Each structure stands twice: as C-alpha cells, then as structure tokens.
Amino acid sequence: MIDTYNKFYDLLITQCDYFSIPLLNNIQTSIETENMLPHNFQENQVDSKTKKILLESKQLLKVDTENLAQIIKKIKLSFKELEHLTAIITGSDLLNTSEEDLVELRKAGLDHFTLLIETGSDTLLKFHKKPLSLNQQKIALKKLEKVGINFSLGVIIGYGGVALSENNAIETAKFINQLKVREIILLAFNHESLSRLTEDQQELFEMLSDRQILEEELMLLNHLQIETIINSSATSDIIEVGAKLPNEKEKLIKKIENRLFEWKEEEPNVVKAFFDSF
C-alpha cells in the first residue's frame, strides 16, 4: 500500500499540478500545533501565488481536529490565491472521523479530499485482502457528501488482471456512478504491485498488456454516467486520456477507439479458472 500511495501522491504532483507541503509526516496527535506547521514556506519553495496545494500526510485525520483546523487556516492566510487545498486520506480514517470534525475542517478551508479506492469490485477487494468492503467505502464517501466536502478518487486499471478486467471496469463504474466525484484519477497495476501478491495469488493473476489497459479504460469510460473529470497515468506513454464528462466523453471514446484500431492485433491469454473460490 505504501508504494501505491507514493505513486498516487507523485501523480498528483506531476500531472495534477499540486504543490506539496511536507506536513505531519512523523505524526503524533499530541504534538503542539506550531510543531506541525512547515518550518518555513519559503524553505519549501512554495510560491505565495500557488493555486493548488497537497498536504503531505498519510494520517491527516488522526491529528487533533482543532490543531489541524489552525494549520489549515494559517495556510489559507499565507496563500491568498489558493484555489484548491487537498490531502490524500484513507477510507478507514474517514470512517473513524465524525461528521462534526469534518464540518470543522471544511469551515477552516479544507474542502477537498483525495482517496485511493483502487476498485469498485468487492470480489477484487477481497482478493487483494483490503481492510474495507465496498459498502464501507461508500458509507465513508457519502459522509463527505453529507458535510459538503468534495473528493477525488484514485482507481487502478488492471486490478483484476486479464480474467477480471471487465469486472474491474464495470463494477468500478457502477460504484462511482452512485457518488458525486470531482475527479477520477487512473493508475496502472504494475510489476511492483504484482510482487506484493502471495505466490498463490500470482499464479491466478495475469497482468494486462498496454493494449488491454487501454481497453479497460475504454470500458470504464463507456459505463461512467456522472459529471466529473477523468485523468489517467495508466496509458500516459501511449495516449493522453483526460476529459470532462459528460461533455467530452464521446470525443475521448473516439480517440481511444482510433488508437486501438491502429494497434497491432494481440491475442491475450485469458486465465480460465480465476477466483473460483470467491
């Protein structure tokens, strides 16, 4: 999970144009507010005209809410042109945070969170041994909607391998269609992720080719029915996938279909007996 978090974090910095403020990396909920603040914004080379900031912390919601609110207010005062302030959080931490605390953070100026949900398939969450079920993820995200905090979601293309590529795309789209998501960020399941699977899991898992990754992205896109923004790093070296939905959906679909049509035909090997025990 740490490697996946880091890749997601890097994507926000490099492709989504967020500037990172190192914050609360060695977190203790009892630390005084002053010690939680960046030592010096100038030392971190933060331009006072910065418009998008990502708070770099893996446990942001475990900080005392009052202290965190003070940090947020200080940041908002320091960057007069700031338009977006976000942080990557986990569904587990969100579930354990009260609505009252979330409202306090929103009022302080933190009105957007980013979560790496990975997939909308319960079958795949179970296979990858994730701590939260799909329903728990939904409860957590609906909490954000209730208190008026926007959010973006990270999804992993190829999370089901070849055999469950369709399952990953369609079930993830179904899940996202139930939510009000500002942005969907697509990452690719890679060899580092594969190495973290057990030997038994690896025997059942065949990674997608570049072509199959693009096909899964297309399938996901075809099933999305909400107003949102979609961006992808999964196929960034093949084709730029980014659009505002639904206005630019058909244009992006046509772009992907044209690229696939140009591609040399492949014959992917499909694993026949995959997840039979699920």
From TrEMBL:
It comes from the Bacteria. It comes from Facklamia miroungae. Keywords: Iron, Iron-sulfur, Metal-binding, S-adenosyl-L-methionine. Coiled coil: none annotated. It holds the Pfam family Radical_SAM. Gene3D superfamilies: Aldolase class I. Residues 1-224 form the Radical SAM core domain. GO terms for molecular function: catalytic activity; iron-sulfur cluster binding; metal ion binding. This is Radical SAM core domain-containing protein. Its cofactor is [4Fe-4S] cluster. The keyword Iron applies.
